[in-house]
């Protein structure tokens, strides 16, 4: 287990070592996104905000227990970091939670929100909303074996089970019998059949007032809101009602959003992060990864949206997209792509 959960990256602000954070990391977090929030993505996002809570992609209990790879791998520089688990067997989840705590994760989160067919076939994700007692059993099993927070990410309903009473019963059961103290609520229902995961992020209407009401009815619980949040101004409005805000695809497609988070959301007295400096802060990490056999494009694909709205952003994206996957591609490729933006700033 790591001893120090503070980042040691010299390129970041020194605020971690000299200022006691005013707010919990859950005040602003980046959603777990399959195939997107891998360890390379998280390391990059950490260059842009030292306070934001980062979530892993969902990792199934089967992969952790039976898989051949190290599905819990991450860099110490990623803290604060939460592991999202997919599963529905309390014993398996407890085993994985113990392993994750031993590896130094700051939080364990149970996925009760993903609507994909593959996830449903494994009996986890959004379909678990129909079995609140099982979710409670899963959370309780994990809480009994770890001391770090165990949280739930869920929807506001599934299929025809989308009444406010259904949502309150679910939260009440998981909080009461499962002793769950924190929920991240995606403010859309999920259709378990008929819609793709992408459509489930767009077609069911957002219902922020329902999530606000849930927080009012469960004031003793910590609750964050997720879904459709695109700006820090929107995040601030939500924080007038909620304990936290989770941002998903907007933060991935426009990561420059994070450069002002520490100051605007966490009230840390620090300058806005310089995006060019953030890219160069990635160079030592990229060099290490290249030496370990990682292709440059596996890292830089997460950086393509950084300069959105800035002259040269298109050239930056195009040059990296066309060259980062070539054999032998290294730091010189990134530096050249950066010059296409930096020379115009």
Explain this structure to me?
The protein has 2 domains: 23-264, TIM Barrel (Alpha-Beta Barrel), CATH 3.20.20.70; 275-342, Four Helix Bundle (Hemerythrin (Met), subunit A) (Up-down Bundle). It contains 17 helices and 8 strands. The chain has helices spanning 15-18, 39-46, 61-66, 90-103, 117-121, 132-143, 164-176, 197-200, 208-217, 232-238, 249-253, 261-264, 275-281, 283-291, 296-300, 313-323, 331-342, and strands at 28-30, 53-60, 81-86, 107-112, 150-154, 182-186, 222-226, 244-247. Strands 1-2-3-4-5-6-7-8 form an 8-stranded parallel beta barrel, surrounded by 4 helices. β2 (53-60), α3 and β3 (81-86) form a beta-alpha-beta unit. α4 (90-103) runs parallel beside α6 (132-143), α6 (132-143) runs parallel beside α7 and α16 packs antiparallel against α17. The protein is globular.
In short:
The chain has two domains: 23-264, Alpha-Beta Barrel (TIM Barrel); 275-342, Up-down Bundle (Four Helix Bundle (Hemerythrin (Met), subunit A)).
Low-confidence stretches: 1-18
- Major β-sheet strand ordering: 1-2-3-4-5-6-7-8
Radius of gyration: 20 Å
Shape: globular
User: What is the tally of beta strands?
Assistant: 8
**Major sheet, described briefly?**
8 strands, parallel, barrel
CATH T-level fold name of the largest domain: TIM Barrel
Helix-strand pattern: HEHEHEHEHHEHEHHEHEHHHHHHH
Level-2 CATH architecture of the largest domain: Alpha-Beta Barrel
